Give the backbone structure.
Amino acid sequence: MGLSLTVLGCSGSYPGAGRACSGYLVRSDTTTIWLDAGSGTLANLQRHVELAAVDAVVLSHEHPDHWVDITGYYVACKHYLNRASVPVYAPAGVREALYYRDEPLEWHTVTDRDQRRIGDLALTFSRTDHGNETLAVRVDAGGRSLGYSADSGPGWSLEALGPGLDLALCEATYLEDMEGRGQHMSARQAGVTGRAAGARRLVLTHLQPGTDPEASRAEATNAFGSAVEVAEEHAVYEL
């Protein structure tokens, strides 16, 4: 398998009709990470792996559209799966935001420039331009590299995750005519930062419900300089 990314949800800020918010599976040959756990992603996760197969959870920040389904996972692990511990890597504010936050969740606080190893996956974190502490993450395994922007305004760049990204998963909440409305990127800005980082592939995520994905793709492609993809639930990207 090498390194792969599975989209569990890609709706921005709130779930569109029949959609899930931000959440992804990152897998190598031996390790499975649930990266962000927005609403709807717990149900979608079970279409790809057993709940007990998740080795760790990584949460980018304390906005609920990126963590709320960890509550259901807590209930499953504590009362049905009898898991002794589930490692969770997140900024300090995430734990404080949760009602269910004790065992079996095993909290590991991460912050800007931290590095962690989970199984055979090497993670590097970078604080983005997004209000409360929000951490983008780079994942390296088997000579392949994935970059995930989490949420960010244009004051941060994918360049902060370092060179050689085989795939950059970047939020693109808005279209160009809405730039500056909040601390989020437009599709155009996602294309700009992907190009600046020298990413080999760019996948847009966190589109605001109702946004035309083809318009987002066109804006980002023009700025990136080559074809850009728009994330879809259950899509699998092999790096």
Q: What stands out?
A: The helical segments are 41-45, 70-81, 92-97, 187-197, 213-224. The chain is about 20% helix and 30% strand.
